[in-house]
Amino acid sequence: MRYHFRAVERFWTCFYRLSSADKALAREAWQSFKEDPFDSHLGTHKIQRLSAYYGRTIYSVRIGEDLRSTFYVDGNTVVSLTIGTHKIYKA
Predict the structure, then answer these.
(1) What is the rounded CA–CA span in Å between residue 24 and residue 43?
(2) Number of structural domains, the chain?
(3) Global confidence as pTM
(4) Contacts of 7 (CB under 8 A, 6+ apart)
(5) Which domain holds residue 40?
(6) Are 37 and 78 in contact (CB under 8 A)?
(7) pLDDT, tens digit, for every residue of 19-73?
(8) For 34, how many CA atoms within 13 A lie in the half-sphere containing its CB?
(9) What is the predicted pLDDT for the residue at 91?
(10) What is the CATH number of the domain that holds 54?
C-alpha cells in the first residue's frame, strides 16, 4: 500500500527538542518508515493503553534504545503523533 504521511504539531515540537544524535537516529529510521511503517526492523507494535484511550489503533516504532515514535493509520494516511522516550506512552 502506498501511504501519505503527516505529523501533528506535537510531533514536531518533541522532535525539535531531541538531541542532535536522536534527531539523526529519527531521520535514519524515517528512511525505512516511509517505505513501510510496518517494516519488521522498526519493531512496529500496537500500544494497547493509548489505543483504548484514543479509540483507535495507536502504533509505536523503535528508533533507538529508548527512543520511540507513535502513529496511527487513517485510510492511506499515516499520522505521526509524538516522538520521545517511553514516557510518550502515558496518555
Answers:
(1) 18
(2) 1
(3) 0.91
(4) 15, 79, 80, 81
(5) 4-89
(6) yes
(7) 999 999 999 999 999 999 999 999 999 999 999 999 999 999 999 999 999 999 9
(8) 9
(9) 57
(10) 3.30.2310.20
